[in-house]
Amino acid sequence: MQEQRRTIQAIGLGFIASLFLSSTFIINSLLAHTTGHWTWTAALRSIFLIPILGIILLCSKQLKPMLQAIQQMPGLFIQWGILSFGALYTLLALASLFVPGWLVAATFQINILAGMLLAPFIYNDHRSKIPRRALLLSVLILVGVLIMQFEKLQHVDHIGGVILSFFLVLGGAVAWPLGNRKLMVELEKRGLQLNAVQRVMGLTIGCMPLLLFLCCIGYVQTGWPPIGQSEASFYAALFSGCLGGVGFYKATHLVKHNPVALSTIEATQVFEIFFTLIGEMILNHAGFPGIYGTAGMLVILVGIGMHCYTAVKHKPAISLQLSS
């Protein structure tokens, strides 16, 4: 029962996190055609995130342990910080220049499969085994994604931009679960206990070399970012980086010893498509999907529903008490 409660709690957190994470795609889409340079869009979100999380950690007296962990292993946080947060948001910002936010969000769902397929290269224990049922359900979800976007793909003008954006988002979709899982494994090996807020803060600080490089490019190209771009990036940091990122990392931490449940948490990110569509319908007056979109939504809902059922009923080889 305790294992099931943990899994249900993690699924709920994953769903809520996807709501806030979708703000990245919506804001990137809105900023793609403004006067601000894309490098500022990629960098400002994480730069604003540092003081927000710093205040939270300072008030909870968790800032010092996190800084001590970075001091002990700066290379670890720089490596996975640049790969996960730095590369992810750089690639997403670039992809938003070529296609709408909903299409970026849809393509990003490849990370659902990436996390599972990378498992044999990340873990040395029972988690290295790819759960077959979870894999098939994730494939079903991605089929629904393709169906839902089919009618919109027919109206995209520049197919070259679609192809380029696909590979950009593909890189981010692999970097995101890889960085998250690898950091948890490395912290486990060293016996360091960092909560979700501390891990997100550590990864954000770790990607600062890349962020500063992007800021230099943006300044040389267009000067300082416009006020509107800075405000939008702050909201992305607050909603996506703080609320969404921390919520997702907390959810994965709860089930980190359960590969089936972990794949389900990563699959909950598919709701980002729905939230992004709703956001673009409100802000960009995008139309509601037609027959293909509706059919794709139904397939996705069936897939994620079966995913959640499988995760709740599954009993991991190692007790989830180890993840506390």
Automatic annotation (TrEMBL):
Pfam families (UniProt xref): EmrE (PF13536)
InterPro entries referenced in this protein's UniProt entry, alphabetically: EmrE
TM region(s), chain numbering: 12-32, 38-59, 80-99, 105-123, 135-153, 159-179, 200-220, 232-249, 261-279, 291-312
Source organism, top-level taxon: Bacteria
Keywords in alphabetical order: Membrane, Transmembrane, Transmembrane helix
Keyword Phosphoprotein: no
Protein's UniProt name: Putative multidrug resistance efflux transporter
Source organism per UniProt: Chitinophaga skermanii
